Amino acid sequence: MTTITERRAIGASLDRRDGPQKVTGTASYAYEHRFDNPLYLFPVQSEVARGRVTRIDASAAEAIPGVVAVLTHDNAPRLADTSDQEFAVLQAGDVAYRGQYVAAAVADTLETARYAASLVLVTYDEEPHDVELRADRSDLYAPDHVNPIYPTDTEEGDFDQSFSAAAVKLDQTYTTPMEHNNPMEPHTTVALWDAGDLTLYETTQGPHAIRGPLAQILGLDRNRVRIIAPYVGGGFGSKTLHANTILAALAALLLQGSPVKFALTRQQMFSGVGYRTPTIQRIRLGADQDCRLTAIAHDVIEQTAKTKEFAEQAAVPTRMMYATQSRRTTHRLAALDVPVPSWMRAPGEAPGMFALESAMDEMAISCGLDPVEFRIRNEPEIDAETGLPYSSRNLVACLLEGARRFGWTGRDARPRARKEGRWQIGTGVASSTFPVIRFAGSVARISHLGDGRYVVEIGAADIGTGTWTALAQIAADALEAGVEDIDLRIGDTALPEASVEGGSSGITSWGTAIFEAARVFRDRYGYSPAEGDQAEAAARDNPEADNYSMHAFGACFAEARVDTDTGEVRIPRMTGVFAAGRIINPKAARSQIIGGLTMGLGMALHEESLVDARFGDVLNHDFASYHIPANADVGQFDIAWIDEEDPYVNPMGSKGVGEIGIVGTAAAIANAVYHATGIRVRDLPITPAKLLLG
Amino acid sequence: MKPFRYERAEDISGAVATLARERSGEFLAGGTNLVDLMKLDVMKPAVLVDVRLLTSTAIEDLPDGRLRIGAAVTNSELAADQRIRARYPMLSQALLSGASGQLRNLATTGGNLLQRTRCAYFYDTTTPCNKREPGTGCSALEGCNSDHAILGASQYCVATHPSDMAVAMTALDAVVRIQGPGGEREIPVTELHRLPGEDPERDTTLEHAELVTAVDLPPSTFSASSTYRKVRERASYAFALVSVAAALQVADGVVRDARIALGGVAHKPWRAHKAEDAMRGRPAVEESFRAAAEAELAAAAPLRGNAYKAPLAANLVTRTLLDLSERR
């Protein structure tokens, strides 16, 4: 693979190029694009979790001055493709989950639309619903594969024999709750249908990625659909295609020529735009006298929707994390009357590694070995799942550097050993990992503006991660130009095709396309191009993907303080050390890791979507009751990178950093809480209630 | 949100008279709770009578040593007032432990007292709730009730009162001044909020169109040895799992007097008279404090999800009193 030897822009901690626009409010998010006489949509959501709408009386709503339409399944435009039931919005009266859109009011003000929606009377033929995930369900089933294309189950060696013969054994079950992504900017669409063209100002992680499916569902030529998303206020996996976008598009089709604005309320963010499935994970570990693992089993139970399968890959990281002579992993699903689970930051890794890394801590204790040393002792030579060597794997370096920075050496391993006043103090560690993912199909176009200045175009998304800056840095080095000479254009399907911002793949996928376009440009025009010279190229598949297993690794260390009287947990400091190839922009990457560690802290201590099974939807659907960390919860973060040269991953030598920060954090905190209190909480989140009654 | 009429009046009497004429209406002050509830269709008043500019924004020293807090004094102003901080530190601490800076800048003293429960079923109009719609049933009784009451609840309602400020005022024996269609009256703050009984739709003993105009604090006798402590899983910006406002007078190692009020445990700020009584005359040691706390919590009736609250409250009271006793 071609790699550049001299990098000037890559590796520089540049300030965000879009920073001034964002802090002055001139960066337009979806809802903020200005229109004359826009209309506002407010949805009516199902109050039953399963059944059929038998009657909708919209007369009171329609009588309100300013109301232009009430959409129902009787009058909504027909979709061309209803094969995916998640997207078959207002096409029939069937209700598959509580909170599903069953109607929508459109009016000339938001307040009128909201009031009108409250007046729509919906009558249901309610059927019994089933929303409870339990390990003892008789209808658990094995999906054909887990996300995105991993085998459902794996078997390596003879697990049963090795486990029964092991000198030290662990057999424990770990559970994680339903969690909701909740980016700061709620899901928003402004849809305009005008003379056969549909334009959406959208909060999306992939303008092109949602255009294809959307066009197909609506029965439109994809070239007549344009998605504009220059700035996106966070996504965490939830800003893919969901029913809200279809609903806004339906209203636009009905109300030709008028822009229809639809921004979800925070409460509405808890139904229909994705969430992390709850998980029930049984881990079995066996080790020999030398504390080497001989048997690993990870059996996962999680939920999906009856209408659509989503199989979170929670046991997948266990397939390669540690060396062992036998291994078994399984995934089983319960199909319920619930919204479709979806992607949430480090899907699979975040819940799966909470279980595995908690179990590794328990096992290290049973073996009488330091948890850092226990992990190092079980470091594998190759990726056991694929049989391939790693393109680079620096977990051990992360653990050792993290231990040094955190002051781990000399730690008294006994629980409850440290106390300051009413606070019990403990420390914990966990490993992190995330695969290097590259999606196909990204294309970059480079045009010379003259005087050594270039326009670089690709329909990539910046969901707050720093894409605007990082891709300019990559383009600068690829063209051997200055960053100031790069005019980057992203966030629009009018630009060349780009893959989705997901799976921490953005920089790898888009940067590779930019490198390829720069190579073609220089091959064609040399280093003295004329004004207007232009080249376009697609990212090619990585041939090294067949030769190497590619993952980022990291180690998270946490200090927990637990109030002996109240069970309150505070995390004054964390150290995170990551080996993620070459870091394109250390400042932006550090922000990503701060976000990941903070979200992991929330996963450990706060986040939990409560479902009352009698009703079937999320009860704590606002930020007063669904807690995420606030500033006062976040202490000192010490973040560092292992200098890692990886010539195989992509031309930049980089690995994604958007998700790995969350992965080991919850386990590191749970392990620290155990060390502080002697109480092992295997059921997230770790609340005062669990510690007081523990 | 249901459309509503917005009214202003020249003075308090006019505001009271305006609302008294309406069947369905509310006074509007800071609006930090009411407007949210209206957006969610939990409250649907036909008219709002704005009293923000009518009630006092002053904190006044009265000749007899009392301190009078105007109903329109914001939570931020009250928490920052030097007299409050010096004489009633638990009140300042309670205020600062609640909500966020932005909310405290808007929320008023009168409104804070009258804020409504944070029970999630009360907030969700698609579920039964006796407080929101009398006679529909209490969803929390057999539902998600980890935040709910352990003291004084009924089969009709197990909600808690969310205010921190009111807990401190309850410990301080504050008096609430009220003006209504029938004139002015005063009641102890302990008689403002109700237990749910059979009619949980009534949070307080206020009659229709009665307006809180001020809160009087009696002369401070506990300032050096009083505190507010709030327990929550998140370090800020969260309602209390359990909170305590406590004050202690010790002489010669013996408890002379004490004030204890609990938040997060009942439909009203819970004055712990049993604990106070159990402590007086006892040695100021951990055993006395724990025995007192347990005396108060003997009546606790936990639900499926909140069994942790009784031990939490007992630990919190014990530790807080112990800390106070060790202060000097």
Write up what this structure looks like:
The complex is a heterodimer of chains A (694) and B (328). Chain A is an alpha+beta fold and 694 residues long. Chain A has 3 domains: 19-28 and 440-541, Aldehyde oxidase/xanthine dehydrogenase, molybdopterin binding domain (Aldehyde Oxidoreductase, domain 4, 2-Layer Sandwich), CATH 3.30.365; 33-128 and 185-265, Alpha-Beta Complex (Aldehyde Oxidoreductase, domain 3); 145-178 and 276-436 and 547-693, 2-Layer Sandwich (Aldehyde Oxidoreductase, domain 4). Helix content of chain A is 24%, strand content 25%. In chain A, strand 20 (443-450) and strand 21 form a beta hairpin. Chain A is globular and about 75 Å long. Chain A starts with 18 loop residues before the first helix and ends with a helix. Chain B has 328 residues and is of the alpha+beta class. Chain B is 28% helix and 20% strand. Chain B has a domain at 225-325: 2-Layer Sandwich (Enolase-like, domain 1), CATH 3.30.390. The A-B interface holds A 47, 98, 111, 114-115, 118, 267, 422, 565-570, 605-606, 610, 612, 614-615, 619-622, 624-625, 627, 629-633, 685, 687-689, 692-693 and B 1-3, 39-41, 118, 120-121, 123-124, 126-127, 139, 142-144, 146, 231-239, 241, 306-308, 311-312, 315-316, 318-319.
Offer a concise description of the structure:
The complex is a heterodimer of chains A (694) and B (328). With 694 residues, chain A is α+β, with helices and mostly antiparallel strands.
Overall helicity of chain A = 10-25%
Mean pLDDT of chain A: 97
Derived from helix and strand composition plus strand pairing, the structural class of chain A reads alpha+beta
Task: State Rg of chain B.
Answer: 19 Å
Q: How far apart, in Å, are the first and last alpha carbons of chain B?
A: 54 Å
The radius of gyration over CA of chain A amounts to: 26 Å
The side-by-side strand order for the widest beta sheet of chain A comes to 3-5-1-14-11-12-13
Helix count of chain A? Answer: 15
- The CATH homologous superfamily of the largest domain in chain A is termed Aldehyde oxidase/xanthine dehydrogenase, molybdopterin binding domain
The proportion of residues in beta strands of chain B is 15-25%
Largest sheet of chain B: 5 strands, antiparallel
Annotation, overall tally of beta strands of chain B: 12
Query: What is the structural class of chain B?
Result: alpha+beta
Please work out how many helical segments of chain B DSSP would assign: 12
Q: How does the overall form of chain B come out from the CA principal axes?
A: globular
CATH superfamily of the domain at 225-325 in chain B: CO dehydrogenase flavoprotein, C-terminal domain
Shape of chain A: globular
The name of the CATH topology of the largest domain in chain A is Aldehyde Oxidoreductase, domain 4
Oligomer: heterodimer
Strand content of chain A: 15-25%
